[in-house]
Write a structure and sequence with these properties.
449 residues; globular
């Protein structure tokens, strides 16, 4: 089932396909930010904060899918078709249950969060409107993420690229229709932007369903709960629950960071959002794609007990890619006025961007290290230890130190960014050390046998 595809697809082919998929997915946030910037910087602040809250909710579904890729890829390496199908059913139903709970949280918590962050009235209005019309997103993402995980584990990455392209183009088309006034009495706003984003999900999911149906199983087979499901559920939950705390903690930390920045200036939130959107190509897209590709191939090698090869994927990826991130962000910094003119000419926004980018030059580079190592590590390492280090870093370095630097030492925005940098450095170091410890222990055990 899996052997023929292994011989046909190389690391680079899958990597390039995932880059395209991630670029198109993140392009939605980029284009949404661009369209919103045509209305006001305050709308960008409100929706930018809403996106961080949504990502906090979606993060646990992403963890289920991320861990799922490792479990499914290991099953593929073992050539166990029964185990593969059992795991897929567990992953899908677990994600649906989580999505339902988080949809309720999204509805009931949004107003309180708007007040807590301290947004201006216009930014708060944009925040609440966007979140309300994005209510179905968790349920939709449960299907999209797990269908994608199944296809990735089968190394059918091209189908995900096709789906992402459909999602990206649908979103642009719907937004352009609104922007050009082709629908009477419908104007570009956070509300219509959210509706366009939700509608554009459905053609993309249909593409994934089409490619799943081309595989050796019927679509509904992936939803079946088999007799082995209880055992697999316990194994997956044992890994997912501790690991889910990490991305939730990370995104909650970002909510605190936004609140801190908002206490300095609401416009600074827009600057932070613009900076993240520009650099998303280097981190979330390229480093994230590299991490997922390494996860697929490393997990497949781990399934075959070829630990040196699994380690080589991570080592080479770090050696080649990290210098690229650093020098690319340096170029963005040197030509910041030109780059950010895509979004705005507001001098106050550009002033804050000039403070943010030099810190991002280093923090985003270290974050890329974590993005490359963490997908594989979270599939095989000690989930409790990984989560403990990461969550401690988020709240001691990311939140507490940011607050102390910004408001106790009166460093302002620079203090907040320094705390973010320290958090990224510590987590990158922990990920690297924990991975080397795990893979070396497996090598030693293998040699002793």
């Amino acid at each position: 089932m899996f052997e023929s595809k292994d011989s046909k697809q190389s690391f680079f082919n899958i990597f390039s396909s995932i880059i395209l998929q991630r670029a198109l997915m993140c392009g939605i946030f980029f284009t949404d930010t661009y369209f919103l910037s045509l209305t006001s910087d305050e709308a960008v602040s409100g929706v930018g904060t809403a996106v961080i809250f949504l990502v906090s909710l979606l993060s646990m579904i992403s963890v289920v899918a991320m861990v799922g890729v490792s479990f499914l890829s290991i099953a593929a390496g073992e050539k166990s078709d029964c185990k593969f199908m059992t795991i897929s059913g567990v992953l899908i139903w677990l994600s649906i249950a989580i999505a339902f709970i988080f949809t309720l949280l999204q509805y009931f918590l949004s107003f309180n969060i708007s007040n807590w962050v301290g947004l201006t009235s216009k930014a708060s209005e944009a925040f609440l409107s966007y979140l309300f019309y994005m209510l179905p997103i968790c349920i939709i993402d449960a299907f999209y993420s797990n269908f994608s995980s199944i296809l990735l584990a089968k190394k059918n990455s091209k189908s995900i690229s096709y789906s992402s392209a459909v999602l990206f183009m649908s979103n642009i088309v719907f937004n352009l229709i609104i922007l050009l006034g082709l629908i009477p009495e419908v104007e570009l706003s956070p509300k219509t932007l959210a509706k366009a984003t939700i509608i554009s999900q459905f053609p993309a999911i249909l593409v994934l369903i089409y490619h799943l149906k081309k595989e050796e199983h019927f679509l509904l087979d992936y939803f079946k709960i088999k007799k082995e499901a209880k055992k697999e559920s316990l194994v997956i939950l044992k890994r997912v629950l501790p690991l889910s705390l990490e991305p939730i903690s990370f995104n909650l930390k970002d909510m605190f960071i936004i609140a801190f920045i908002g206490n300095i200036s609401s416009i600074a939130i827009a600057s932070f959002t613009y900076s993240k959107n520009i650099l998303i190509l280097l981190t979330t897209v390229l480093a994230g794609a590299l991490g997922v590709t390494v996860q697929i191939f490393s997990s497949y090698s781990i399934g075959k007990e070829n630990y040196p090869k699994a380690d080589s994927y991570i080592k080479k990826s770090l050696n080649y890619y990290i210098p690229i991130v650093f020098f690319s962000i340096l170029i963005v910094y040197l030509f910041a006025d030109l780059v950010f003119s895509i979004f705005t000419f507001n001098e106050e926004v550009l002033f804050f961007i000039g403070i943010i980018i030099p810190y991002f030059l280093f923090s985003e580079t270290f974050q890329s290290v974590s993005l490359i190592i963490s997908p594989t590590l979270r599939g095989v390492g000690d989930p409790k230890l990984i989560s403990m280090f990461s969550i401690s870093s988020n709240w001691i370095l990311g939140v507490l130190s940011s607050f102390i630097f910004a408001f106790y030492f009166n460093m302002g925005l620079s203090g907040i960014l320094l705390g973010i940098f320290l958090d990224d450095v510590f987590r990158a170091g922990c990920n690297y050390v924990l991975w080397k410890k795990w893979v070396n222990s497996k090598r030693i055990k293998q040699l002793s046998n």
